[in-house]
Amino acid sequence: MIRVALTGALGRMGAVMRRELRRQEDMQLVVAVSHRLPGLELTEEDRQSLQGVRLVTALDEVDAGGLDVVLDFSTPEAALEYAAYAGGHRLPMVLGTTGFSPAQLDELAERLAAVPCLVTPNMSLMMNIVFRMVANATVVLADYDVDVEITERHHRGKRNAPSDTALKLAQIVAEKRHWPFPEVVCGSRWGRSGARPEKEIGIQCVRGGDIFSEHQVCFAGLGERIEIVHRAHSLSSYARGAVKALRWIVRQPPGVYDLLDMLGLSEVLY
Ligand SMILES: NC(=O)c1ccc[n+]([C@@H]2O[C@H](COP(=O)([O-])OP(=O)(O)OC[C@H]3O[C@@H](n4cnc5c(N)ncnc54)[C@H](OP(=O)(O)O)[C@@H]3O)[C@@H](O)[C@H]2O)c1
Q1: Burial class (CB in 10 A: 0-12, 13-18, 19+), 186
Q2: Where in the chain is the domain with CATH 3.40.50.720?
Q3: Tens digit of pLDDT per residue, the chain (270 long)?
Q4: Residues 6+ apart with CB under 8 A from 46
Q5: How far apart (Å, rounded) are the C-alpha atoms in residues 255 and 4?
Q6: DSSP SS3 for 30
Q7: Does ligand 1 come within 6 angstroms of the Cβ of 116?
Q8: If you classify domain 2-123+235-262 with CATH, what class do you get?
Q9: Neighbouring-strand partners of residue 185
Q10: What is the DSSP string of 127-141?
Q11: What kind and span of H or E run contains 267?
């Protein structure tokens, strides 16, 4: 049985994770951490999904001996605190939180140096297949005079722009083209005149209503184009990926991994 502590437990992803974890026969949610306690009124659904789960305000209140892994969907600042606990108590960790600055990512790696941890901007298995498709298309089209443009769409409440997933897509293209990243990324062409520079990857961010996460990568060539689109229909695609990540990370040696490592896609093809 894999005993899980969930941080950011009362957030949107936290709610979906609580439901998904209950469906797993080999996993048990033993601790749920919410920084909004006490004083928070739980919904009936919250109460049901937290039955038999210890609900705490801080991970420090918990004896790490009763845990096998920490799963985090919170904020970068909070995730760093939770990572200090996981690293300090030698617990593997899976992080779905996005929006880390480069300095925060370095800090995260330092805090988790002694344990296996999986960090990914996108827990969806299908999105990770798109990462690989984009890498392969970039390599095959290297000398084909093709511009790459990325469009991401999200709900109005999303905190960071561009999404980490869009940035990862741009990073993949830049790496395969041996271009400096993030210098080649263009976030806005407002007010700019003249032709599109060749050495550029555009990212457009759309925010509105309750749009579910959508990422499109357009390889715009001459006389033709390819558009690779991933649309998430619900948060369950991330929850299902996170469950697989938990099962995988507890068997890994210390190190920093992402979902492509878990899928065995980090080195295939190109
Ligand atoms: N990798 C992926 O595939 C993926 C998919 C979806 C979302 N995400 C990312 O996961 C994160 C959470 O997303 P969400 O949609 O669940 O957001 P959300 O509903 O806003 O939940 C975020 C949660 O973070 C916790 N939090 C906020 N401020 C905090 C603080 N000062 N100290 C401690 N905890 C704090 C809160 O949980 P408590 O009140 O329970 O502490 C809050 O509910 C975001 O970074 C999002 O981009 C990643």
Answers
A1: middle
A2: 2-123+235-262
A3: 999 999 999 999 999 999 999 999 999 999 999 998 877 788 998 988 899 999 999 999 999 999 999 999 999 999 999 999 999 999 999 999 999 999 999 999 999 999 999 999 999 999 999 999 999 999 999 999 999 999 999 999 998 999 999 999 999 999 999 999 999 999 999 999 999 999 999 999 999 999 999 999 999 999 999 999 999 999 999 999 999 999 999 999 999 999 999 998 876 555
A4: 10, 15
A5: 19
A6: strand
A7: no
A8: alpha beta
A9: 201
A10: HHHHHHHHHHHHHHT
A11: none
| Closest-CA residue to 65 (of 88, 84, 89, 85) | 89
CATH of domain 125-231: 3.30.360.10
- 3-state class of 72 per DSSP? strand
Residues 205 and 139: beta-carbon distance below 8 Å: no
**Sole residue written with tokens 């600042």:** 77
How many angstroms separate the CA atoms of 235 and 213, rounded?
A: 9
CB of 162 shorter than 6 A to ligand 1: no
Buried b (16+ CB within 10 A) or exposed e, 58-90: ebeebebeebbbbbbbbbbebbbbbbbbbbebe
Residue nearest atom 31 in ligand 1 by C-alpha distance: 78
Instruction: For residue 127, give the ligand 1 atom closest to its CA.
Output: 3
73 lines ligand 1 (CB under 6 A): yes
What's at 124, amino acid-wise?
Answer: S
